[in-house]
Amino acid sequence: xxxxxxxxxxxxxxxxxxxxxxxxxxxxxxxxxxxxxxxxxxxxxxxxxxxxxxxxxxxxxxxxxxxxxxxxxxxxxxxxxxxxxxxxxxxxxxxxxxxxxxxxxxxxxxxxxxxxxxxxxxxxxxxxxxxxxxxxxxxxxxxxxxxxxxxxxxxxxxxxxxxxxxxxxxxxxxxxxxxxxxxxxxxxxxxxxxxxxxxxxxxxxxxxxxxxxxxxxxxxxxxxxxxxxxx
Length: 231
Prior knowledge:
231 residues; 1 helix; 19 strands
């Protein structure tokens, strides 16, 4: 007699068959005329400037060739109730390379390890803060240094470097694994969702937020597209 195997996800003490979980995909478009990308002036630190043979631009607004937006954080805002989810064992990495943060926008779980790396041969300081509090301010004076941090609760965290004021990044901290960041095609995917009705939010550092509600049944694959306005 043959045996069947299935992948499962632990939600609030229950085993959920991933083959029955739902997936939400979509894209984020920009309506209106985007602002011109700002060039970064790195002359103040030769160790930064020497790493770039061409002009470097901020990642605050990046419009893809197909009219979609890069660096939009998509996540489940409401609908999960009191469900709990296991933490990933692998850390998320925030690198300082070329005197820029990589990635510029990312998600991390509350309680998950964030590994912060200095890949530059110059001094950086990593200042993590929310709208209401400074969380940490760490000096990273030499190349190859790695530090680790964790966030206790869901929030939006901004990272800056006072040594290089053009450097910034954002992390959405979540109590669940249902988040994604749009890339070069402006698309996202939220997978392994249990059946339910959810409010999905799209967040952009300049153009703000917009939400949509969607209901998914077991095994559903649905599409939700977002449009953010440039003005």
